[in-house]
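Worked example (supplementary).
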Amino acid sequence: MTYDAHFRVWRGDTDAGDLQDYIVEVNDGEVVLDVIHRLQATQTPDLAVRWNCKAGKCGSCSAEINGRPRLLCMTRMNNFGADETVTVTPMRAFPVVRDLVTDVSFNYTKAQQIPAFAPPVGVAPGDYRMAQVDVERSQEFRKCIECFLCQDTCHVVRDHEENKQAFAGPRFLMRISELDMHPLDSRDRKLEAQDRHGLGYCNITKCCTEVCPEGIHITDNALIPLKERVADRKYDPLVWLGSKIFRRGSSTGGARTPGA
Amino acid sequence: MASSGGTGVRAPGRASIGVRTLRTDRWWAAPLATFGFLFGWVVYATVRVCLHSDYWVAKYHYLTPFYSPCLTKSCTPDSALFGRPLPRFPIIIPFAIVSLVFLLGFRMTCYYYRKAYYRSFWAAPPACAVAEPHRRYSGETRFPLVIQNSHRYFFYLAALVALVNTIDLIDSFTQGLGLGNIIMLINVVGLWGYSASCHTCRSIMGGRLNHFSEHPVRYRLWGWVSKLNGYHMQLALGTLVTLAVTDAYIALLAAGAFSDLRIIS
Ligand code: SF4
Ligand code: SF4
Ligand code: FES
Ligand code: FES
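After joint prediction of all chains, the assembly is encoded as:
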């Protein structure tokens, strides 16, 4: 089936911009990015849009479609009725560069602030040994394609520009969670998650999980477990007392080579 | 529609779009339904615990969970399985004040309910990608919301209350078997399911470990709890229904509205 769809696309830059109306042809099996490309090819050669893989793997084409943060290349046109208006805007949590392209450098800054994987002293690269069950949990988080849709949706920064300083956002709190669960990471990341990366700002309302195109259970498997680990360290006098008496640092954190 | 110098989605530099959301679906339906359901439940429970009547069916030993354990001299003596160490309660103070405080604390600090009421009562956010109405937001970083980190204590206390409810159930079985016992049984199974699926329970069982390979038993427990945890929302809401149904059934029996359907007398 081929039909003419009504698109509203945000055009503009940092200073000004608005939604503009277009009638564009849509064919069977197409995704929103196809239609945006047709628009570019036939009516608006200067329309700015960022994309690379068209396969949901590079995380470049993040935008908002009918108000919902999504990948342009993974949103099929058959989600919409032929008479439905499809509104496409850039991500609304980041500064716009032009049209559908935003400046996502906030995320790179946050990524840099997270201390890298820290193997235990005396274990050189190449000597890392880990049991599969110990790394399984964090492998889910490695599916992340860094589309930053979760960062865009999280109300902590989306609705409060001033929180960008203090809050790393779901993608990077997930990274801290991954490292804190890592069997070979020797850094204690619990206090810094809370005090330096703003875990406390997250109120577990799960919008990051709702929009993640990789279907990662960000809230349930990364953020809530991290909140529990922080509570162990910071808010639970019993666990603190227990670790003083039994000196068991290893079960709640710290790295050890299996069998060592 | 130039940038208006506001905050959030209207902050300078962001694409200037006047409206708080461009969502076209009925994003308000879910928070509204949650609000209605939770509000209705709280009204029902408040009325019932303040009523001080129709909480115990002496013939079959049915005690509603809203009055369990009955620890005050105001209770009918045979409904007080654990004795009546507390003095008489004036009107308005629920007989089961002790357990109700624990249960309220448990549900208020539950990760699922937090999501539910932050969204539906507090509109922070009302729905994903719908701008919230608040000017400032500090989440759970400071008092009072930093108290949410006490969930683990309420978890242990609520497990005690679930144990009390289990004892009530066993006591009711000493009098035979009727529809009432079955309703109570469903409720108790639900309460254990809700507690066991708790995120804190998941962490205690094994989530806080980094070396599953060294703790095979806890790894397995963690695996089971993780499976249950996937249904935590359903269990959280389902047990509100079973609690209200159990209470209403026992209240109506006690008031003589109908008689229990007996299977074994
Ligand atoms: S769950 Fe936390 S991190 Fe994820 S969107 Fe909500 S507030 Fe942000
Ligand atoms: S966690 Fe999901 S939504 Fe967030 S950046 Fe990674 S893939 Fe995108
Ligand atoms: S173009 Fe690569 S994810 Fe859409
Ligand atoms: S997370 Fe819901 S009861 Fe603990």
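Two points are worth noting when inspecting this output. The beta strands of chain B are 56-57, 62-63, 177-178, 262-264. The radius of gyration of chain B is 23 Å.
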